[in-house]
TrEMBL record:
Protein name per its UniProtKB record: PadR family transcriptional regulator
Alphabetized Pfam families for the sequence: PadR
Gene3D superfamilies linked to this entry: Winged helix-like DNA-binding domain superfamily/Winged helix DNA-binding domain
Domain Transcription regulator PadR N-terminal: 16-88
Annotated InterPro entries: Metal_resp_DNA-bind_regulator, Tscrpt_reg_PadR_N, WH-like_DNA-bd_sf, WH_DNA-bd_sf
Coiled coil: none
Length: 110
């Protein structure tokens, strides 16, 4: 599990930005979306520091909105700089993921 956690830590910013790019979300909803795509190990305690870092770097912005079911929620939006960063990370990921997958699958099949 430690290896998975370390690998995910390296790409989590991009995963968060990819979800935020689709629609504005608040922290708990983001956690649910990550679980829905198959990343159940991501807790809210992990997500909030990522959101703060992305916001500090200018990749996302947060806006408080009223909630029908409780206190106001902070919704996050991707900025233009965030869209550029997501594109950059996605390109880099594709350059790495393909060759690594081929190497690892070769080991399984050989």
């Amino acid at each position: 599990m430690a290896a998975r956690s370390q690998l995910l830590k390296g790409i989590l910013d991009a995963c968060v930005m990819a979800i935020v790019e689709e629609k504005a979300v608040y922290g708990y909803e983001l956690s649910q979306q990550l679980q829905k795509v198959g990343l159940p190990d991501i807790s809210e305690g992990t997500i909030y520091p990522v959101l703060l870092r992305l916001q500090k770097n200018g990749f996302i912005i947060g806006e408080m909105r009223p909630s029908a079911s409780g206190p106001n929620r902070k919704y996050y939006y991707l900025t233009d700089a965030g869209k550029e960063e997501l594109e950059r990370i996605s390109s880099e990921w594709m350059l790495i993921a393909g060759p690594v997958s081929q190497l690892l699958q070769r080991g399984e099949n050989g």
